[in-house]
Write a structure and sequence with these properties.
2 copies of one chain form a homodimer.
Chain A (H helix, E strand, L loop, with lengths): L1 E5 L3 H11 L6 E6 L2 H11 L3 E5 L7 H11 L5 E5 L4 H10 L3 E4 L6 H9 L2 E4 L3 H8 L15 H10 L5 H8 L3 H15 L4 H12 L1
Parallel strand pairs in A: 1-2, 1-3, 3-4, 4-5, 5-6
The first copy, chain A, binds a DNA duplex through helix 9.
Chain lengths: ~210, ~210
DNA sequence: TTTGAAATATGACAATTGTCATTTTTGCTT
DNA sequence: AAGCAAAAATGACAATTGTCATATTTCAAA
């Protein structure tokens, strides 16, 4: 399996090369110093897997990944990083990287490389723990659990759109006072204080 | 490295055992037929990695994973599946699984297992492509675009927690009137009417 | 030191909001 | 038709809210 390693610190690329080539299945064909260089090199060398740092002077690892995958949709790129940054993780996923691992746990790196070569996608350590936060799909809220009636439920949804009681009354063909009563009822059922807390609850727990 | 394999189809567990034990680093210590059995067995055997199917009669792989991780937070569990189901992926992440791979690409399975053993998290094939859809992150909100000052920004965040003006005033060491003025300012900058709309805006556009 | 611009505060005001006790209306069931 | 319970409405009330015009304070530049 032929690798290419990209990092603007030559020390890092050298070390990684040494570590990875301890595995007989792996050869490191090329070391690059920048994203730009990597894109060039990829075209010629077509390595099986690319290992790239994210932060680099010239062209960062994310855009390099993007370019490389544009050249060759079957390319496998693993991004190396020193720490967990939500923003990077996010872009890495968007861009289509096949790995996002921490430099610090390079012990299992060759296994990760091989897994990626085999078509898997690898995330280092605690990175995955972040994902659920990023995709804030909390488990489905059940109105019934709180004895919320359909009408009350509609009210909640309108509050969460920012409507005033008067506007809600119009939409629901109810009197404004009725809406207020409904509101009162919902708030006490959910143990909240005012419509703003209701809206917050809605976005945090329901949708 | 000691493995445990869980699947209600004995044929599958057998096959996996054979495939995986071709790798000299791997031994399969135990085969289980159900999630319930797996939880029991884990307690005794403490395997390094658990490979478990998701769909099973008795106790499904997800709840089994949950239980096992409750027993031993350092446990490594890889979930096996035949197809991509958003709902499963989601729960798998939540539950804290360290892998989610397709049965069909069992070729690279041993590498995946090793990578997981080394602390990585592995996703099979096209699964990751789903993630960005699941977390429908709109592009990052830029406070500067709306000339929101840091203090105003703090206010917004507190409103989005459902605090009243008085509470916000306390938290920010400001007078309640000042908070009201800040509020007024933010609302006009964002072209909103009241704090509830502000909270909605926050959850829809900012976080 | 003076000056000026932010930041912070005040007070008055009208509107909205949530609570509650009490009708009125509505739609059943008998 | 009578009776009844849920749904809808009313009205009174205090609290909160947002706006605005106007101080007061702060703090750095001139």
């Amino acid at each position: 399996m032929r690798l290419m390693i990209v990092d603007d610190d030559p020390l890092v690329t050298q070390s990684l090369k040494i570590i990875l080539e301890q595995d007989p299945d792996i050869t490191v064909d090329k070391l690059c110093q920048s994203g730009r260089e990597a894109i060039e090199a990829y075209r010629e060398i077509k390595p099986d897997v690319v290992l790239s740092d994210i932060r680099m002077e010239d062209t960062d690892g994310l855009t390099a990944t993007e370019e490389i995958l544009k050249l060759d949709p079957d390319a496998k790129v693993i991004l190396l990083t020193t720490f967990l940054d939500d923003e990077y993780i996010n872009r890495a996923l968007k861009v289509g990287a096949h790995g996002y691992v921490l430099k610090q746990d390079c012990a299992s790196l060759s296994d990760s490389v091989k897994a990626v070569y085999g078509g898997q996608t690898v995330f280092g350590g605690k990175i995955v723990e972040r994902l659920p936060n990023l995709m804030n799909r909390t488990e489905k809220f059940k109105w019934e659990d709180y004895d919320i009636t359909p009408k009350e439920r509609e009210l909640v949804e309108l509050v969460a759109e920012g409507l005033s009681n008067k506007e809600i009354a119009n939409k629901m063909f109810l009197g404004e006072g009725t809406v207020r009563n409904l509101m009162s009822s919902v708030l006490s059922k959910l143990d909240l204080r005012d419509r703003t807390q209701l809206a917050c609850f809605y976005y945090q727990r329901i949708v």
